[in-house]
Amino acid sequence: MECPHLSSSVCITPDSAKFPNGSPSSWCCSVCRSNKSPWVCLTCSSVHCGSYRCDDFVVNDTKLGLVQKVREHLQNLENSTFTADRHRKRKLLENSSLNTKLLKVNGSTTGICATGLRNLGNTCFMNAILQSLSNIEQFCCYFKELPAVELRNGKTAGRRTYHTRSQGDNNVSLVEEFRKTLCALWQGSQTAFSPESLFYVVWKIMPNFRGYQQQDAHEFMRYLLDHLHLELQGGFNGVSRSAILQENSALSGSNKCCINGASTVVTAIFGGILQNEVNCLICGTESRKFDPFLDLSLDIPSQFRNKRSKNQENGPVCSLRDCLRSFTDLEELDETELYMCHKCKKKQKSTKKFWIQKLPKVLCLHLKRFHWTAYLRNKVDTYVEFPLRGLDMKCYLLEPENSGPESCLYDLAAVVVHHGSGVGSGHYTAYATHEGRWFHFNDSTVTLTDEDTVVKAKAYILFYVERQAKAGSDKL
Asked: Among this protein's residues, is 323 annotated catalytic?
């Protein structure tokens, strides 16, 4: 059901001044009867909500594409302004040793090609994850080397068009829009890229992220990786992209971690395996289970939760090793988590311990900074010390003797940081290293930074890349 007057619509919120038919709660979607975030047409008073059930969300464009034309015109003006501003800043920063647009490397001058991502309305959570993934070389290169897929035929083929809700699900590909976004981020042709097409696909296939509310960056990352994995398994346009992965021996040769079916580049790079070991405290029966993972979620130990900065004097600083030790230490399960012992034939008290059976090529560590207390989800603002180089994971392995001297060392590639007090508010930014230099990605703004600034960040998600054998040997 589609309103012909999309350009004249308004979102109904509790802060709206007056309503002809009473309070906002009396307005509901004409399709699914939901009153959650309804939209009303100012011309014909048709109301829709954009929920998953009716799949009818407002894109705010007319059938003649008038809003699109305005967007393109404004974008051209903005690009010309950014270009002029970039040339001016480049001349001012030429003599700077850190924040310079031009840098000499091995005797030749190279330019900074980093591109920001425009905020489309509380989309900093998405921007921070995309910038982090774009700086994981193996992962990013795989997608950038995929052949382009043309989703449109006829008159619109080869032209950039804005999606409207009249297009069906067959016209969207998360892999393709993700590929386009990654290609745009390091071309250096613009200072900021607008990921509108990718965000449209996210709305289409991930209903939890529809709307313009602040979202959890970690939750978005997991949904994104899971959906990329599923789409790559299915292949697209008659070509199985899993087959492309099999041709890349560097990725597929050592990959043994499969999540939900066949292996893809997602599991080949982020996939690891945990061994979950549970022991009955009554009869001593031991149960072992192997679980694949794409990331590890680590608690911040309670004894460190009042330590909000590195220089604060009250007590020791929490380190990433403390969080990893808390994750892998032997734990006695409480009364709400009694283990069903097959030998005792009933639920018994037990202990649990995690071992890492297989480490991934890229180790993604999520620090659990948000937790529920009564009716609120509060943030743990504790500073956690983390290494830039040489994170040694050998002591957490199930069989460390079978690992080489360098295979357990990891170097930091990217960090996602949450600024603010709650998961539904605040702001996300990211730090990432590219060709030996650290960058700070704050939506459309990208700046060079240094290691001292990075290590002071209150990390939320850390991306560590497996060290190659030729690198140094400094350890955590």
From this structure: no
Average pLDDT estimate for 117-133: 95
Higher pLDDT: 399 or 379? It is 379
- The reported pTM is 0.71
Given a cut of 50, is residue 401 above it in pLDDT?
A: yes
Quote the pLDDT of residue 20. 46
Q: Which pLDDT value is given to residue 338?
A: 86
- Antiparallel, parallel or unpaired: β 459-466 and 370-373: unpaired
Under a CB-based contact definition with an 8 Å cutoff, are residues 324 and 396 in contact? yes
Q: Would you state the structure tokens that stand for residue 355, as one six-digit string? A: 């071992």
64 neighbors 52 (Cβ within 8 angstroms): no
The yes-or-no verdict on residue 334 having pLDDT over 70 is yes
Q: Is 445 helix (H, G, I), strand (E, B) or coil?
A: strand
Is 283 annotated as catalytic? Answer: no
d(C-alpha 27, C-alpha 38), whole Å: 7
Between the CA of residue 396 and those of 72, 304, 324, 353, 403, what are the distances in Å? 52, 21, 8, 11, 12
Are 116 and 443 within 8 A, CB to CB? yes
Distance CA 94, CA 101 (A): 7
- Among candidate residues 124, 257, 323, 341, the one labeled active-site is 124
CA angle 450, 456, 457 (to 5 degrees): 95
Catalytic residue (one of 371, 419, 427, 434): 427
Question: CB-based contacts of 83: which residues, under 8 Å, 6+ apart?
Answer: 191
